Amino acid sequence: MLNVQSLTKHFGKLRALDNMSFSALDGEITGILGPNGAGKTTALRILYGLLKTESGQAYVDDIDVAVRPIEARKRLGVFPDKFGLYERLTAFEQINYFAGLHGLHGAEGKAATHNIITQLALEDIAQRRSQGFSQGQRMKVTLAQALVHRPQNLVLDEPTRGLDVMSTRILREQLKNLRDAGHCILFSSHVMQEVAALCDKVIIVAQGKVIATGTPQQLCEQTGETQLEEAFVKLIGSDEGIAA
Ligand SMILES: Nc1ncnc2c1ncn2[C@@H]1O[C@H](COP(=O)(O)OP(=O)(O)OP(=O)(O)O)[C@@H](O)[C@H]1O
Q: Structure pTM?
């Protein structure tokens, strides 16, 4: 379970987060949907310990990330907004390196790496250097890195950006499998269709605040609309910065 309470964050005079609170439960895919600059990345970065909040708390399975960051990270897989692979390493070496960062060394690390390679069907590229990998192959290796230590919780920042249709479908299937296995999945997006297709719960944010929370159906009912896109426009009063 992931939970943030009353997060506030400024960059200079700009208030990126304004008393933001939300949670994501086990066995559910939760989507944070909001226009460009709404504060999605900032909130996720606080959750995975890359940024400090000015006030409020962020919890991973009830562990305060500011107080016990290492324990929080053990329970969290992160697919960050910017990712790069070490071009000279093979996919196996990349993933195994991340296993080591999470305390899985030697035979234990190798077993965990083999495991996730099988789970994500990465065998064909496992022994290739990542230089020259397609965008979809990069995505899968990055996902494997995030999952190698079998975290209960997974946070993804705009995971389908730059992916073709096939890679997007593979990613969606993986997220559904993880959800069905009881994991907690939180991802940010400004793509309406993706959120509508995948999410059990949607958190709508704008200008650093949570505007509404609910299932896609609840948000439609709340606004008297039949489409999430229309509900969203009604709730935030604009469709600027949102992709259909
Ligand atoms: N390191 C930073 N320095 C200055 N301003 C920042 C920084 N990080 C974020 N901001 C600003 O904070 C606000 C929220 O940014 P954030 O990246 O969290 O939004 P977002 O909802 O993820 O947007 P997008 O969908 O465009 O990725 C924006 O106005 C952004 O310009």
A: 0.90
